UniProtKB/TrEMBL annotation:
Segment forming the signal sequence: none
One term under GO cellular component: mitochondrion
Keywords, comma-separated and alphabetical: Aminoacyl-tRNA synthetase, ATP-binding, Ligase, Nucleotide-binding, Protein biosynthesis
Protein name: arginine--tRNA ligase
Entry similarity comment: Belongs to the class-I aminoacyl-tRNA synthetase family.
Region (Disordered): 1-27
Species name: Obba rivulosa
InterPro entries assigned to the protein according to its UniProt record, in alphabetical order: aa-tRNA-synth_I_CS (IPR001412), Arg-tRNA-ligase (IPR001278), Arg-tRNA-synth_N_sf (IPR036695), ArgRS_core (IPR035684), DALR_anticod-bd (IPR008909), Rossmann-like_a/b/a_fold (IPR014729), tRNAsynth_Ia_anticodon-bd (IPR009080)
Its EC number(s): 6.1.1.19
């Protein structure tokens, strides 16, 4: 998705009443900023010494059919609310920005001028979708992050262990956040930090000697390594010597013994290749594949040494622990007795390496809430080390997924999850034979809709909530599901195919937007106008659910207008064209929201 780095191809027409500029607003990318500024100006001028900036922060979306509301008490002005409200009402003059204001208890409710709203919003959506210098759709983007760099780590599965739904959630939420920061002007480096190091690789090495096959490895490295891991783990349970041998092997790996490392290198490369294919199907791409193996020994040693100097390390039978009891974060092992490193220490050293390499303004870790303690310990240690960039790190967590299994049993691999989604969706689609036969690539379409179903279910609620995986519900075309969103998008796309005689549409300036007078079109337009705010809120909360909710609201609004605000069959050609343009703008914004969520909007199904 787009990067807001070039000037907007849209600007507020100069014939409209002039407005002051409020820092942080971008009317050329978000027209509602102008309407809010106009309201702030009205209130500030009526109620000195309030400034336009002060009032601006108090202009909220209204409830139930009200465009914007200002709560008077929040400004803590002397005098009665009723008198203050009367001052605003007395001074109010309707103009091309604001049509009316009413006073209701502590509130002032403002209605924006419909003709201006419709014209500006649709022109802005159109220009920022189709006329950008980048040639990429940019509606909804802003430049708040210009010049800043984000490193975001997500997915991070463990080679030779299962890719479980927790990793899938990290992948989905992480991909969304990466898109989101880009949409807000940040330079984004997305990073996959593989679990490719640790004692278990000693175990697999021992297992590979016993059970490994190069042929199987070539075929599907992820599955083969997993099978070896399961078998050798069982052996280790029986035989302590297996464990001891594994520990010795890993120690050799840590010491850089090439003979102990060569197989491991192959496993890793083949696993990454396989992962890349699967991520591509999810519409996810990483700029960097790194892993626990790549954390430098130097950084880990520096960190440990400093912790020791600071008196934060306890010795326990040769193992080293950092004592975080003071912060209610328990004690955590930072180096094992045999001198080998562990997960926590690698995270500490890894952060230092990354700062050196990327000089980031912010680094996000998208990791399950099951690792809250680990992440808190890790971040606390960085703070104790007094690294000046320690507060640039943030853990974005998420709850559990319950009950994820395929029809054949529990899923342990990503490709099983994708296959199952495609096949459940395919069965679903076949239930309607006529429609099914009209689909061009039923297999591909089923996979895409299936993946959309998984992603939307995953992002529909607050991140921290646990949710139960439910194939039937998430893959239904009814209710607020991924398939429904795809359907809504396909349906608006059909409008050009169904009305070829109206095409090509005239240039935006020639389209008679004043003919769009129905309340249901105004609802759609207002929602379109609010999309840049939805993006900004998501950046603040790191929650995809607001974007999902927006996509559903927009789909519902389109659906409500669809039967009454018709294009096909409308006798007045100018009106039919204006309506078509409005629906196409709605399509553009729905598509933008879906892409932000890493979903590929379909044009046919
Ligand atoms: N590989 C780890 C796991 O599967 C997740 C890594 C999370 N990231 C981190 N920097 N600790 O549990």
């Amino acid at each position: 998705p787009a990067h807001a780095t070039t000037p907007s191809p849209f600007s507020i027409p100069s014939e409209l009443p002039p407005l002051p500029h409020i820092p942080g607003t971008e009317p050329d990318r978000s027209v509602l900023d102008s309407f809010r500024t106009a309201i702030a100006k009205i209130v500030a001028e009526a109620l000195p010494p309030l400034t336009v900036e002060q009032v601006y922060t108090g202009v909220d979306y209204g409830k139930k059919g009200v465009d914007f509301t200002v709560a008077i008490p929040r400004f803590r002005l002397p005098g009665k609310v009723d008198e203050l409200a009367a001052k605003v009402l007395n001074k109010f003059q309707p103009d091309e920005w604001i049509e009316s204001v009413v006073h209701d208890k502590a509130f002032l409710h403002f209605t924006v001028r419909t003709s201006t709203l419709v014209r500006l919003v649709l022109n802005q959506v159109h220009a920022l979708t189709h006329d950008t210098p980048s040639k990429e759709p940019e509606y909804g983007t802003n430049t708040s992050g210009a010049g800043k760099r984000l490193v975001i780590e997500y997915s991070s599965p463990n080679i030779a262990k299962s890719f479980h739904v927790g990793h899938l959630r990290s992948t989905i939420i992480g991909a969304f956040l990466a898109n989101l920061y880009k949409a807000c002007g940040w330079e984004v480096i997305s990073m996959n930090y593989l679990g490719d190091w640790g004692t278990q690789f000693g175990l697999i090495a021992v297992g590979f000697e016993k059970y490994g096959s190069h042929e199987e490895l070539e075929k599907d490295a992820i599955k083969h390594l997993y099978n070896i891991y399961v078998k050798i783990n069982a052996d280790a349970e029986q035989d302590p010597e297996v464990k001891a041998e594994a520990a010795r092997w890993f120690k050799r790996m840590e010491e850089g013994d090439e003979a102990a490392l060569s197989n491991w290198r192959v496993w890793r490369a083949l696993s990454v290749r396989k992962y890349e294919e699967e991520y591509a199907r999810l519409n996810v791409k990483f700029d960097v594949y790194t892993g626990e193996s790549e954390v430098t020994k130097e950084s880990q040693d520096v960190a440990l040494k400093r912790l020791e100097e600071m008196g934060l390390i306890d010795d326990h039978e040769g193992a080293k622990l950092v004592n975080l009891e003071k912060y209610k974060l328990a004690k955590a092992v930072v180096r094992k007795r045999d001198g080998t490193s562990i997960y926590l220490t690698r995270d500490i050293g890894g952060a230092m390496d990354r700062y050196q390499k990327y000089n980031f303004d912010k680094m996000i870790y998208v990791v399950s809430s099951q690792q809250d303690l680990h992440m808190a310990q890790f971040l606390k240690v960085l703070q104790l080390l007094e690294l000046p960039w320690a507060n640039r790190l943030e853990h974005v967590n998420y709850g559990l997924v319950l009950g994820m299994s395929t029809r054949k049993g529990t899923a342990v691999f990503l490709d099983q999850i994708i296959k199952e989604a495609a096949s459940v969706m395919h069965d679903q689609m076949r239930k309607n034979e006529d429609k099914y036969n009209a689909v061009e690539n039923p297999e591909e379409t089923a996979q895409e809709i299936g993946i959309t179903g998984i992603k939307i279910q995953d992002m529909a609620a607050k991140r921290i909530n646990n949710y139960t995986f439910n194939w039937e519900r998430m893959l239904s075309f009814e209710g607020d599901t991924g398939p429904y969103l795809q359907y809504a998008h396909v349906r608006v796309c059909s409008i050009t195919r169904k009305n070829p005689e109206l095409l090509p549409l005239p240039a935006p300036s020639e389209i008679k937007t004043e003919l769009l007078t129905e309340p249901s079109t105004r609802d759609i337009v207002f929602l379109l106008g609010s999309y840049p705010d939805v993006v900004k809120t998501a950046l603040r909360t790191h929650e995809p659910s607001g974007v999902v909710t927006f996509a559903f609201r927009l789909s519902h609004a389109i659906s409500s207008a669809w039967e009454s605000v018709i294009v096909k069959g409308e006798q007045d050609v100018e009106k039919a064209r204006a309506r078509m343009w409005m629906y196409l703008c709605a399509r553009d914004v729905l598509g933008a929201a879906m892409r932000l969520l890493s979903v590929k909007p379909l044009e046919r199904m």
